[in-house]
Each structure stands twice: as structure tokens, then as C-alpha cells.
Amino acid sequence: VNRTDAADLLKLIDCFIAGPDRSRQLADEIEGIVIQCFQEATWFDDVSTALAQFSPGGDEHYFDEQALMTELVPVAELLRESLAEES
Amino acid sequence: VTWLAPSSRVESVERRLVRSVLAAILPFVACFVAQCPSVTTAGAETAHAFDALVRNARARSVVGVAEFDHFLDLGGPTASAGLERNPEHAGVATNSVDDASSIVRYDPQWASRQLAGQNLPSSTGYATTPGGRTFSAHAAERTFVGGPGRAPVDPGLVDDILNQGTRVGFDPIRDTIKVSAPNLCGRCYVVVDAQTGQHVVTVMVPK
């Protein structure tokens, strides 16, 4: 995985987790990087599904902000560890 | 603005003078409030323009430009998706005092059809795939407009993924089924509601 891509993704995920911006637009930016650069990651299926099914406020069949954060927090930790090991 | 309306048949010279001066400067005040580049209305239209611009400025400060634009018929491909048009305002920007009559409840079926280009006269329900499955508005956007940074998807591929997919997963919390088709398009998948299996919740096809 490209270090720059990982750093960019971590930055966006941290932004989402920290709030207050938990918009669909931010989730779309995260999804764009995940789909483009992380298809081989072990967490790709779960996280890309959560992002593809994200709808602010949630709905019958969709992930809300809290549910998406539940998926994103472990990814942020993995990315942080990965970046720390490389540096 | 209410104060400017004539309240008696005879107006004093002073009052008419004040009216004239205010009528002249009001567009510029309104322009300053709304931060718009220019206003060309004058005379009787001034109060109208002022009301519209102030309401516009207030709306921007309260709900943000993007959200406010959803209340207006701006004619964009997706900006007004899901909003039933007032026939009297069809094709006309409604940044006027009549905006209130143009605000309607969000209709996901209408949005779905609009995004899919299936909003024909007297059409009802959600947009459909060639195979007859229905698209949620979310899925329609991701299919017909494209996912983030990705090109639109052929709606026929949605049917293909569901018909020929080789991996299936159930999400009990959201009551959905995810069908993946690595044999067709790599990491692509379609999520449908578990109750019918015919309503597409979301679509993901990497470019």
C-alpha cells in the first residue's frame, strides 16, 4: 500500500471520527480512496460495504454515522500502526 | 418593507421623498446582505427583490447553500431530485417570494426515477433495472450518476451481478443481502433488501 494513500485515508477517517463533519461528502471521499487503493486490504469488504451503504441519519437498510464509525475506527488503528512501523 | 407600503391615500412630501431614497438604495442594501454581485430591479419590484434576497441570505446562513439549493428548482440533474415540482414553476428558477409553495416533502421514489431518467408522465414507484428490480434513490444515484470518483454503471450489470453472483452475505441488522460477482467485475457487489430481494439498496462497481 502506498504510504501517501494510507496517510490520506487516515487523515480523512480521523476527520470523520473526530466530527463534527460526518457528511455523506466526507464518506464519499473516504470511499473513493478505499475503492481505488485498498481493494487488497483484509478489511476492504466490510468497510467498503459500510461506506457504500452509508446514509447520514441512517435508514431502514443503511449505516448511520455511528455504525460507520464502528467500521472505521479499527481501520484507522491499523493504518496508524502501519504508518508507524514504516517510519 | 411593510412600512414602505402606502398606508393612506395622501402621502406627505417627506414620506414620498423617503420612499424614493429608500427605493433607490434598497437593492444595494439587499445586495450587501445577500452578497450577490448585482441587482437590477427597481421601483415596485424592490420590496419583492429585497424579501427574496434576505430570505436567501437567511437560508444560506441557517442551512447552508447546498441544502438551500434543494428547496429551489435550479434545473440541475440532481439538485432537485426527489422534489415534486409545482407545475406553475416548472422550468423556472423559483428564487422568489413564491418559494414557500415550491417546498415539498422528499419523495424517494420520485428521486429514484429522476436519477434514472425514468420520470415519465404518470410514472410511479421506484426506477427499475432492465430485469424489473427496483432502485432506491441511493442506489439509483450510484448507478446512473456514478459512485464517488467513478463512472456510471450499466443498470443491466446490476441484474447480471444479482443473477450470476457467486458470493452472498446477509446483514441481519440492516436486513440486507450482499451479492458479489468476482467472476463478472472483480470486487463489485449489489446489496438488496432481504425481504424481497428485489429492491436494490446500493451498488458498488470499481472502475
Write the layout of secondary structure elements.
The complex is a heterodimer of chains A (87) and B (207).
Chain A: H1 3-18, H2 24-37, H3 44-52, H4 65-86
Helix pairs in contact in A: 1-2, 1-4, 2-3, 3-4
Chain B: H1 13-34, H2 45-63, H3 65-69, H4 99-102, H5 108-116, E1 134-135, H6 137-145, H7 155-164, E2 167-171, E3 176-180, H8 182-185, E4 189-193, E5 199-204
Parallel strand pairs in B: 1-5
Antiparallel strand pairs in B: 2-3, 3-4, 4-5
Helix pairs in contact in B: 1-2, 5-6
Task: Provide the descriptors you would attach to this structure in a database record.
heterodimer; A: 87 residues; mainly alpha; 4 helices; 70% helix; B: 207 residues; alpha+beta; five-stranded mixed β-sheet; 5 strands; disordered N terminus
Main sheet summary of chain B? 5 strands, mixed
**Low-confidence parts of chain B lasting 5 or more residues at pLDDT below 50?**
1-10, 36-80, 84-92
Largest two-chain interface: A-B, 19 and 22 residues
Low-pLDDT windows of residues of chain A: none
Our Rg estimate of chain A from Cα atoms comes to: 12 Å
Label the structural class of chain A: mainly alpha
Helix content of chain A: over 70%
Give the integer mean of the pLDDT values of chain A.
Answer: 93
Q: What is the H/E order of chain A?
A: HHHH
Helix content of chain B: 25-40%
Descriptive overview:
The complex is a heterodimer of chains A (87) and B (207). Chain A is an all-alpha fold and 87 residues long. Helices cover 70% and strands 0% of the residues of chain A. Chain A is built from four helices and no strands. The two termini of chain A are 14 Å apart. The mean pLDDT of chain A is 93. Chain B has 207 residues and is an alpha+beta fold. Chain B has eight helices and five strands; from the N terminus they run αααααβααββαββ. Chain B has a five-stranded mixed β-sheet. The chains are: A mainly alpha (87), B alpha+beta (207). The interface between A and B is medium-sized, with 19 and 22 residues.
